[in-house]
Design a protein that fits this description.
Helix content: 40-55%
Radius of gyration: 27 Å
Largest sheet: 5 strands, antiparallel
Low-confidence stretches: none
CATH architecture of the largest domain: Roll
CATH class of the largest domain: Mainly Beta
Strand content: 25-35%
Structural class: alpha+beta
CATH topology of the largest domain: SH3 type barrels
Number of helices: 11
Distance between the termini: 60 Å
Length: about 325
Amino acid sequence: MTQPTTRVLAVLELLQGCGRISGPELALRVGVDGRTLRRYIATLEELGVPIVAERGRYGAYMLVPGFKLPPLMFNDDEALAPSVGLVAARGLGLAEAAPAVASAQAKLARVTPDRLKRQLHAIAETVRVDLVHASGVPHSNEALIALTAAAQAQRRVHLDYTTPQHLRSERDVDPYGLAWRAGAWYVVGWCHLRRDLRSFRLDRIGTVQSLDAHFERPVGFDALEQLAFSVATLPRSIAIEVLLRTDLKTARDAFSLAFGLFEPVDNGVLLRSSADDLDWFARQLARLSFDFEVRTPARLRNALRRHATRLQRLAAGNA
């Protein structure tokens, strides 16, 4: 915070959020001395913000009870964050996203100065975000709202669910968390029907009924990480092992989140995966910037040779 105006707004933000805060703590958190802080308090009072100042050794500052602050005050960087976030919300597959985004953008525009208002309009009109090929058909928010509430309260739910094979089922689930991946929302948790961790696409959930039963979420549980693991370990027809001649971070950055399991070894990273189409897998390997060694199956090496032959033909101009 280098500009006085920004610091004055920071004082106001802290007063609103803390309720009652001592002068020394307030000065420390804003990064000014006591004399400068008193000048900032005076500035706020001149702007019509009623502040109570308690004197004495244990004195403090607070806003007058019942005083309502302006709803939003953003500097340039702060205005950019919600603006881009609202644009991204269009791609999250929510039925009410479009009108909600439009309404929120209008509210932002009403409470920002002209310079920032032009920036908000520019972002809304020119920025588009592709969240990994987000789904084009929006779905109801009811399941999302119900499941996020249940996950936060750690309360079991009863789901009416349709499987990918179009079979209807009912099951009790402890919803540990939710995640967005590849154009769809998922809830991840303990399925009491299968007695194992499972993930369920929200657009396949019919009804969500909260049950009078609580659960304990595993410490440090990450819904997106678990979802990626479950996708990576789905059984496919051909098991694959490839030694990647690089470090773990580079290996993970080179592939999608659910491509396979990565294990650091002495001379690189061992990728364990599976596929139904070896030609497709060969194309994924061919784009890597680092070396690799196919451990298994031998047919994957043949797929790489076919891909290399095709590229040589195209490079030579022989379509």
